[in-house]
Amino acid sequence: MSLNLTLSLITLFSVLSLGIFVLYEDYNNKTNQTFFFLCLSIITWIIGNLFANIFISNTNISLLFIRSSVIGAVFIPVLFSKLINALYEYSSKYIPMYNNINKISYIFIAIVIILNQTSINIKSINIEEWGISFVPGVLYYFLFIYFIISFSFPFIYLFDILKKSNHQQKSQIRYIMIGSGLSIFISIIICIILPMLNSSYLSIFSTTVPILFISIISYAITKHHLFNMKVIAIEIVTFGLWVFVLFRALTAEDISEFYIEAGILLIAIVFGIMLIRTIIHEILQREKIEELTEKLDIAYKEIEELNISIEEKEFSGVSKK
User: Which end of the chain has fewer surrounding CB within 10 Å, N or C?
Assistant: First the structure.
């Protein structure tokens, strides 16, 4: 199995797992639903690239899939903006700008879908030793502008919120800005700028970039629990184990070895999720106890103040007599 296919499958599995995990946390929550759809758009983009490499021997089918992958990509900025807006519902002066950018984005997405299977999108593909390189069409220049503009709002909005937030939220927002900003920057260079400069080799690594992007946002969605260092450490170890076992399954030499590794992967996923949920539950219980302790301290202080007030009134009454 080629490096490109292996990386695509690992990322596909990772993004899908995180999307389902966050949705499962609270499937009625608008933020969690938006995150899941963001994962689906990334998965659509990955599947397009994946199948383009699977059907590498048939250039027409491969070209069809690599063109189709662009549809998944153009939904990512819109869903990312919606997600940030849902995650931090603040009244901001930038909301009207957000609405206008969204309207323009939907028009552009419709144009991309209409022109998707034309040479305006991607002119042609070339089969290389490392995989597929492609020749971008005129649409790619507009894609570059679209991504820059549509991704700008979430960061402007986050920067505006950063000034109004408490310490805990500021920590979350910084994680999101750094993690997603780095992922978006790398993706634009690898997937758009370099292909326009006739250099597509690094695109074989493009499908791995969303792991950082999705991981950081999933931490933010599940609020402060997952920013606890204990939980983050356990999640990294668990996630690393999943990826390692998945890689072993994908590189299995025969079908029996594949089934064994797939079974181990399934067990690892079940116990990993159970472990993470147990740790989160433990942290939640501890936070509730700390909250109750703070409330009791406030109540005792109020009682003490009330007793002092009563004593002062009684002393004042006795003095008057």
Answer: C
DSSP state of 29: -
pLDDT tens digits, one per residue of 257-280: 878 878 887 888 788 778 777 777
Q: Which residues on adjacent β-strands are paired with residue 135?
A: 124
Distance, CA of 22 to CA of 24 (rounded, Å):
5
Distances (CA, A) of 54 to 8, 14, 131, 214: 11, 20, 10, 25
Q: Give the CATH fold of the 3-226 domain.
A: Rhopdopsin 7-helix transmembrane proteins (1.20.1070)
Write out pLDDT tens, residues 45-75.
988 888 888 888 888 898 899 899 899 999 9
How far is residue 18's CA from residue 223's CA, in Å, rounded to a whole number? Answer: 15
Look up residue 89 and give its two tokens: 């519902």
What is the predicted pLDDT for the residue at 111?
92
Q: What is the CA radius of gyration of the chain?
A: 26
DSSP 72-138: HHHHHHHHHHHHHHHHS----TTHHHHHHHHHHHHHHHHHHHHTTTSTTTEEEEEE-SSSEEEEE-T
Least Cα distance to 13 among 37, 47, 55, 54 occurs for 47
Domain locations in the chain as residue ranges: 3-226, 228-321
Beta bridge partners of 122: 136
SS3 252: coil
Q: How far is residue 121's CA from residue 129's CA, in Å, rounded to a whole number? A: 24
* Tokens of residue 143, six digits: 């894609």
Give the mean model confidence (pLDDT) for residues 134-159: 87
Instruction: Read off the amino acid at residue 225.
Output: H
Contacts of 124 (CB under 8 A, 6+ apart): 63, 134, 135
pTM given for the model: 0.70
Confidence of residue 41 (pLDDT cuts 50, 70, 90): very high
Q: Are 172 and 224 in contact (CB under 8 A)?
A: yes
